[in-house]
Amino acid sequence: MKKLNLLFLCTGNSCRSQMAEGWARHLGADNFFVESAGIEAHGKNPRAIAVMREAGVDISDQESTRVTEEMLQRADVVVTVCGHADEHCPVLPAGIKKIHWPLSDPARATGTEDEIMAQFRATRDEVRTRVEGLLKDLRDSR
User: Which residue ranges does the record assign to the Phosphotyrosine protein phosphatase I domain (predicted)?
Assistant: First the structure.
């Protein structure tokens, strides 16, 4: 069976989309080809790497990249993980399924380091739940 191509899209491809890519690779590598990209490329957020590592998923080798036409052409499903990316998502080729997840940005969290990391962990866990649901739905629909 052909692997579906998933593309997680965010503004800067630094945090939420990186987490989604990591979870999807971790949970669905057998059935899915997974990428993430941003409208811009801001580099990976070290806190995102740290909280994913805590959960047993290493995203340190993933790249922060800007979305390309080739990425959009090969995608079967595009998931925007922030409002800005949803509003500024390039026009998708016909037949591509688009899903929007309005995730809050943990990189905007304020407070102590513990409070900020708690926001990153909450986002990590929400992303995992959403990715698990998406992968299940996509597997069930095939």
Answer: 4-137
Nearest partner of 107 among 1, 13, 6, 4, judged by Cα: 13
Does residue 82 carry a catalytic annotation?
yes
Its sign, for the CA torsion 54, 56, 62, 64, is negative
Identify whether 15 is a catalytic site residue: no
Whole-prediction pTM: 0.94
All residues at 6 or more sequence positions from 25 whose CB lies less than 8 Å from its CB, including other chains:
34, 57
Mean pLDDT estimate for the chain: 94
Q: 50, 89, 116, 138: which one is catalytic?
A: 89
- 38-82 confidence digits (pLDDT tens): 998 899 999 999 999 999 999 999 999 999 999 999 999 999 998
Q: Going along the chain, which residue ranges are E strands?
A: 4-10, 32-38, 77-80, 97-100
Annotation marks residue 89 as catalytic: yes
Catalytic residue among 4, 9, 10, 67: 10
